[in-house]
Specification:
By secondary structure, the protein is an alpha+beta fold. It is built from nine helices and 23 strands. Helix content is about 20%, strand content about 40%. Helix 1 packs parallel to helix 2.
């Protein structure tokens, strides 16, 4: 509260103004974020930038109406103006206001601390970061003579948030973030290939180490060099083995969004009427988790003052839970799951994923591959699109292998995988025991942008359409 220059009396006063024209609920969200970026191009660190964002938002709920307003100036006068604006937006058909509805006794919510920081980024000079970028560049050029260009950046940020609502919930969190992103471009006999690799964590300067730089440089060179020998396979309908790790984007896009409660509340999700029903194999459990230490998608407290938690969307094949914010939880008469998230104080919270993954099964990756006569092994995913209502999706696979007679054979690249989320989930017939969380810079763009992560063990999907050469 000292950071934002407010007292508990100020918070209560703003809430009272927000509900002055009626309403069922109101909340306040304060944010102070700093972000820094350092970039390397053409062999030298030559660009840096910093950004500060500061402000607060007021939300008022009245029946099915929502009013939201924000201000970048946190004087009491400006915050009251925002509260009045939100109140006016939500005021149509509002119930009469009763000041007795406000809980005047603050209930402090304290998160468990899933991302403690040893060295704050705010205390780190640019001169301390520069050697790591230079080391990354030099390591990549040294590793392979075909490398002809490297572009890299280190970014860090820190967000302070404060939340208060008309139920008396008072919560705060400090959220660090750190990312390294590198693009490697290689040329051989007139042929050019490129690949991008990233790592991202909620953590302090202690995460930026020589070992991390070495790991990133080795991996990006290997994955780029792989592409010179890879081809686009013939397309068609075939079995697809999803490799452990980044294939978790399939869960996020094709399945996870369909479990977000706002889509189900509005009956736009294909899973709207399937709660408690069997939707896939008993071997499959799908989780959305905000509690993984230092994970990019983790949250001690969500943007509605709800503790971060682990939520089973699918438990042993049964649809177990949607992902709830406070609005959907009230609609379904259940507890919020800690999925109320927003891009910044300029936006209202929505049900959003955190770290979405499938738990281990009982098979081995080797046995799964051995069971396939002809198919593909999809190893590195980048992006995708999905239609929430129908569940249809398209994903781009950067690289993988052909599977022929139970063995990985020729390298493949640049293919699309096309299917339907619920059907693909139901068509998973084997799950390996090699779960891997992918710590890349995944961002979810559902109306707003939020950091997330994903992962899964290797799985066999019996039938998907592969878009390759015909």
């Amino acid at each position: 509260m000292a950071l934002f220059g407010v007292t508990q009396d100020n918070l209560k006063q703003i809430i009272e103004v927000a509900l002055s024209k009626g309403g069922d609920y109101a909340d306040l969200y304060f944010e102070y974020s700093t972000a820094n970026e350092l970039s390397l191009r053409d062999g030298e660190v030559n660009s840096t930038g910093s950004h500060i964002d500061y402000g607060m938002g007021v939300r008022v709920l009245s029946g099915d109406r929502t009013g939201y307003a924000y201000t970048e100036i946190t004087t009491l006068q400006e915050m009251i103006k925002a509260a009045k604006a939100a109140s006016m937006i939500a005021s149509e058909n509002s119930s009469s206001y009763n000041s007795a509805n406000i809980n005047l006794t603050p209930l402090s919510i304290i998160g468990k601390g899933y991302y403690p920081v040893k060295q704050n980024w705010e205390e780190i000079e640019i001169s301390s970061k520069t050697p790591f970028l230079q080391q990354l560049n030099d390591s990549i050029f040294t590793a392979d003579k075909r490398v002809n260009k490297v572009m890299a950046r280190i970014s860090d940020s820190n967000s302070e948030m404060l939340f208060y609502n008309s139920e008396g919930v008072l919560a705060s969190d400090t959220r660090p973030m750190f990312s390294v992103v590198v693009t490697c471009i290689m040329e051989s006999n007139g042929k050019v290939e490129n690949n991008t690799l990233s790592r991202s964590f909620r953590g302090g300067f202690e995460f930026l180490t020589n070992d991390l730089i070495k790991e990133i440089s080795r991996e990006v060179v290997a994955k780029t060099a792989f592409l010179f020998d890879a081809v686009r396979p013939k397309g068609g309908e075939m079995p697809v083995v999803m490799a452990a790790g980044s294939s978790g984007i399939l869960l996020h896009e094709a399945i996870g969004h369909a479990f977000e409660a706002d889509f189900n509340r509005m009956n736009t999700s294909i899973f709207s009427n399937k709660m408690g029903k069997k939707i896939c194999s008993n071997e499959i459990s799908v989780v959305d988790d905000g509690t993984i230490p230092f994970n990019r998608g983790s949250i001690n407290i969500d943007d509605e003052g709800v503790l971060g938690q682990k939520t089973y969307m699918v438990k042993e094949g049964i649809l177990n839970s949607y992902l709830h914010d406070r609005i959907s939880a009230k609609y379904y008469n259940t507890a919020p799951t800690g999925n109320g998230r927003r891009e910044s104080f300029r936006f209202m919270p929505l049900p959003r994923m955190r770290a979405t993954y499938m738990e281990n099964g009982k098979s081995s990756e080797e046995d799964i591959i051995a069971s396939i006569k002809k198919g593909i092994f999809a190893q590195n995913f980048s992006n995708g699109q999905v239609q929430i209502g129908a569940g249809d999706f398209t994903f781009f696979v950067k690289s993988g292998y052909l599977i022929e007679n139970g063995k990985l054979t020729r390298p493949i690249k640049d293919i699309n995988i096309i299917g339907n989320g619920p059907e693909a989930l139901a068509d998973i017939t084997a799950v390996a025991s090699n779960i891997l969380i992918d710590n890349s810079t995944w961002v979810c763009g559902k109306e707003q942008f939020c950091p997330v992560s994903c992962g899964m063990p290797s799985v066999l999907v019996n039938k998907l359409t592969v878009g390759g050469d015909y």
